[in-house]
Design a protein that fits this description.
The protein has 137 residues and is an all-alpha fold. The protein has a domain of 64 residues. It is built from six helices and no strands. α1 runs antiparallel to α2 and α2 packs antiparallel against α3.
Length: 137
């Protein structure tokens, strides 16, 4: 029959395992805090100083990170627009442009230059004519 310390160790390990399955950061921090408490108990009962010390350091860190998270409805962060995109849409609306017109990026001129120079180099390679890259006397 397993002892109380063994059960606490398995509970702590199970809590760590469940943190890897969650997608929500708030839930992850809560599970991490619970696993820290379980591992502190386990490390103190079995006297494992590395485990005890690690989780004594991680507990306040996870607590501070959890308290610093904004309180929002689940999934609300996914529905919100990033601030830069929202500002761009507001700016376009003020200037009278359509809402979706600024969301596509135009190709950069350096990409065009690179493509045209590489295609001309490929064409000259295929025709067997090589252009000297350095001026030679």
């Amino acid at each position: 029959m397993p002892t109380t310390t063994t059960v606490i160790g398995y509970i702590a390990s199970g809590l760590v395992l469940t943190t890897f399955w969650t997608n929500d950061l708030r839930r992850l921090r809560i599970l991490a805090i619970l696993s820290n408490i379980a591992f502190i108990s386990y490390g103190a009962l079995v006297w494992l100083p590395p485990v005890l010390g690690l989780h004594l350091l991680l507990l306040p860190l996870n607590t501070v990170r959890l308290m610093g998270m904004p309180r929002a409805a689940p999934g609300a962060a996914q529905r919100e627009l990033p601030a830069s995109r929202l500002a761009m849409l507001v700016d376009r609306a003020r200037r009278g442009a359509s809402a979706g017109s600024g969301l596509r990026r135009e190709p950069r001129t350096c990409s065009r230059t690179l493509l045209s120079s590489s295609s001309s180099a490929f064409a000259s390679f295929r025709s067997g004519v090589s252009k000297p890259s350095v001026n030679q006397p």
